[in-house]
Amino acid sequence: MKNIFRKMTLADLTQIMQIEKQVFSNFWSEVFFIETIEKDICYVNRLDRELIGYLVGKKFNKVFYLMNFAIKKELHHQGYGMQMMRFLLSFLIKENFDFVFLDVRESNKAASNLYKHFGFAPYRKKLNYYSSPVEDAVQMLLNFNWFKKL
């Protein structure tokens, strides 16, 4: 099986929405994805012909804000999240970004551990950031400038 990363298209929306609703209790609308695909950095992860994950982020100068990152629920803990994060960080390094920010539910230890594995560190807490259920977010930061000095 071949793992492929490519830019997200409108043709991917049906599969993306299936994953979005499966993975998140407070999921994005299809309209939000349509608007995002047109103006932001959006990629999908395909395993052969099956869409298994996606990521969406915004660019602010040399800062990238990862807004959405998901892998099909039945494929969690099989390394696909690590592969997708590796792809994203390689892309951001090639594009000469300085920082990456993301938010994660405080209770989502699996995601937090994945991000820490790649060098992200807790930056600040956002109180009551999430709904359904209400929960704090931990904003995490990865500073590429530190690596550039090595």
Describe this structure in words.
The structure is a single chain. Helices cover 33% and strands 39% of the residues. The chain is of the alpha+beta class and 150 residues long. The protein has a single domain, classed as 3-Layer(aba) Sandwich (Aminopeptidase), CATH 3.40.630.30. Strands 1-2-3-4-5-7-6 form a seven-stranded mixed β-sheet, with helices on both faces. A hairpin with a 4-residue loop joins strand 6 and strand 7 (135-143). It starts with a strand and ends with a helix. The model has no long low-confidence stretch (mean pLDDT 93).
The chain-level mean pLDDT equals 93
Structural class: alpha+beta
Query: What Rg, in angstroms, do the CA atoms define?
Result: 15 Å
Cα-to-Cα separation, first versus last residue: 36 Å
Strand order, biggest sheet? 1-2-3-4-5-7-6
Low-confidence stretches: none
User: For the record, what CATH class applies?
Assistant: Alpha Beta
Order of helices and strands: EHHEEEHEHEEH
User: CATH topology, anyone?
Assistant: Aminopeptidase
